[in-house]
Amino acid sequence: MPESRTNPPRRDDDRSAFTSSVAAFVATGAFFVAVMALIVVSTSSGGGGSGNGVATAAPVPISMSEFKISPAAITMPTGGKLIAKNTGSMVHNLQVKEANVTTPDIQPGGSAEMNLSSLAPGTYPISCIVPGHAEAGMKGTVTVSDGAAGGGEVAGAAPGGSGSSAADSSASGSEQIDWAARDKAMADGMQTFLDSLKPGAPPLTPGQGNQKLAPTIGADGVKEFTLEASVIDWQTEPGKTVKAWAYNNQVPAPWIRVEPNDRVRIKFKNNLPASSDIHWHGISTPFDQDGVSPLTQPMVKPGESYTYEFTLPNRTELGMYHPHNQGEVAVPNGMFGVFQVGDLSLPRGRTVSGRAIPANLQVTQELPMVLNDAGSIGLSLNGKSYPATGATVAKPGDAILVNYYNEGLQVHPMHLHRLNQLVVAKDGIPLDQPYYADTVLIGPGERYSVLILPTAEDIGAWAWHCHILTHSESAKGLTGMVTALVVTDPTKPT
Ligand SMILES: [Cu+2]
Predict the structure, then answer these.
(1) Residue 271 and residue 54: Cα distance in Å, rounded?
(2) Distance 471 CA to ligand 1 centre (A)
(3) 74 and 143 part of one domain
(4) Claim to verify: residue 350 and residue 479 sit in the same structural domain
(5) How confident is the model at residue 306 (pLDDT cuts 50, 70, 90)?
(6) Does residue 412 sit within a domain?
(7) Is residue 4 situated within a structural domain?
């Protein structure tokens, strides 16, 4: 952003540079809140005719968007119908299991009627059954009343809390958004995040993924790795512990790093409640090692083991490993890891968009950034949600190589403030024409590799987040897919 160039960090003392960075970061948060206000206004106008005097026979409207059902608690008369409207930007559906009714997939802007006349008076769960959407918040209840005519009625707070967003309440017109409370939540979350970045501060949550897994060398010289899958307790953010499906008790799974032409043997033990397998996504394996049961191998049943063995090609590959069997459950729940073969070749000594890349460029840190958005893990970077995402710390002259891996169900435009990202590879394949971008869109299954080259002009704590704003903002402040790049000032003690 050009404006920020006119506002360099102050240099009074070593605290003030940090404080001014913080101010910039907080100001960014305030901007997000303003953007969210606009979103709230625009979605509520699409909320589908509230203030309705619903006649007994008229279908009761309910709207679906990312990722909520509004109202989350709806009341209707016996013998009635719901009309489910998709006011979001993705495909959704709605299921009332007890009535044995599920709408077809509804495109954005579309709607579908649900005849719930089979339901006796009572309260029943409803949800969108597009994988991951219920977990992300698209669930609620329908209460069938045998009294007078029902109608769309908003319960003040949705069960579970996270679904009760400002959009719910503004759609009803019956409740005011507590902006002051939102400001406080934003500020408190930021304080927690910034405190966690102070030197010597303990991590906000126990457990860390992407730990490099050293091979043992078999008697035949093959590099051997052991991966054991099980359900574990995993803390994604302070106060939130989920049931993660994990390899070797970590999310993301261990980072496996090998070299071109290596022969590897991976011993897999399945302690999950479900059958599984391991697919080596983006890695060139022989057909029978591709890990797609029951196409290329038998399913590995709970309690069983299975061994993969293959020789890697003579080139760099940046892949991921995850189950293919029951993948839509297992992967969002945490079963994903980096499988890296060799080092990417970088555009050293080249000039891209007028900016010269040093011929002697050395990568000072290489970071996987694994994206997820569903299942028990939810909106996260490397298995953690803000404020537990931590920050990447660098100094001017460093070269940070970030490999994004999208193991989620949605696209994520990853935006880094101020510093452009030099995109050097797609899916681990070096680009003949590297390019700079401030926002890199990563679809499910994709990998993008970017170089970040901070200079002395870039000192500060820069927000780095998914720019689908509901992936990085909520009524509770910054959330989910948010981290920071902290460029320290080498002339100041830390
Ligand atoms: Cu996103």
Answers:
(1) 52
(2) 5
(3) yes
(4) yes
(5) very high
(6) yes
(7) no
Domain end position, chosen among 172, 190, 225:
172
Q: Report CA(59)–ligand 1 centroid distance (Å).
A: 34
Q: Measure 494 CA to ligand 1 centroid, in angstroms.
A: 32
Give the tokens for residue 288: 């029978």
CA of 217 to the centre of ligand 1 (A): 39
pLDDT confidence of residue 130? 79
Residues 218 and 107 in one domain: no
Query: CA-CA distance, 396 to 228, in Å (whole number)?
Result: 40
Total of domains in the chain: 3
Q: Chain-wide mean pLDDT for the chain?
A: 85
150, 54 in Cβ contact below 8 A?
A: yes
Q: Quick one: which of 239, 298, 275 has its CA closest to 479?
A: 239
Instruction: Report how far ligand 1's centroid is from the alpha carbon of 189 (Å).
Output: 19
Provide the strand spans (E) within 11-110. 60-65, 68-70, 73-77, 81-86, 95-96, 101-102
Provide φ and ψ at 359, rounded to 5°: -70, -30
Residue ending a domain, choose from 286, 321, 342: 342
CA of 447 to the centre of ligand 1 (A): 14
Q: What is the pLDDT of residues 243-284, one digit of tens each?
A: 999 999 999 999 999 999 999 999 999 999 999 999 999 999
Given a contact cutoff of 8 angstroms between Cβ atoms, the answer to whether 145 and 78 are in contact is: yes
* Interval 130-182: pLDDT, tens: 767 787 788 998 888 876 444 443 333 333 334 334 444 444 455 688 999 99
Q: What is the CATH number of the domain that holds 333?
A: 2.60.40.420
**Alpha-carbon distance 393 to 487, whole Å?**
6
User: Residue 365 is encoded by which pair of tokens?
Assistant: 């840190």
Q: How far is the CA of 467 from the centre of ligand 1 (A)?
A: 6
Distance CA 374, CA 311 (A): 33
If you measure from the C-alpha of residue 284 to the centroid of ligand 1, how many angstroms do you get, rounded to a whole number?
Answer: 28
Q: How far apart are the first and last CA of the chain?
A: 26
Residue 416 Cα to ligand 1 midpoint, Å, equals: 13
Other beta carbons within 10 Å of 147: 9
Residue type, 253: A
Where in the sequence is the domain holding 126, given as residue range(s)? 53-172
CB 185 within 8 A of CB 477: yes
Q: How far is the CA of 470 from the centre of ligand 1 (A)?
A: 8
Q: Which two tokens stand for residue 104?
A: 């077809």
Contacts of 28 (CB under 8 A, 6+ apart): 417, 463
Identity of the residue numbered 213: L
The residues with which 487 forms a beta bridge, in sequence order, are 394, 460
338 lies in the same domain as 357:
no
